[in-house]
Write a structure and sequence with these properties.
Elements lengths: L2 H4 L20 H7 L16 H31 L7 H37 L14 H6 L7 H13 L2
Length: about 170
Amino acid sequence: MSAETNSSSTKKKTTMKTPQGSQEPTTTQTLLSYGVKPYEPKKDEEYMSKAQKEHFRKLLNIWKAALLQGGDETIHDLKELAEVPADVSDQATLEETFALRLRARDREHKLINKIDESIRAIDSGDYGYCEECGIEIGIRRLEARPTATLCIDCKTLAEVREKQGR
């Protein structure tokens, strides 16, 4: 569905589909909505084969394009809402809406940078391997989080350390 039929608050039509029923779709939902199916490794296929790298490059580029389009739409929406309302409470609500959207844009900008880093890692041959211990991150984990740079064990350890304040 286009954004036009997916939301009554917007009048413009977009070319990219958006997942239904979710404000912030998961990576998997987003990619499935664009027709990117999870990678199915062939029997005895080498980890991070050419086909796997091509799959993840495609996946990352589609995700990045969707984020960039969303940013363009937010800028357009913010320009449309830029008229200052006369009522003070309406103005406060509008300012809060602006702040929330700008924070979301900032998070998406950081995610776009991580996507670009992942694409560079594909180019250098480092993609899919843990930055800490060097083992394979795994196809399923990369499908769930294509920008992952740590294996599940190292990520868990990093989260424990973070909670302990180290």
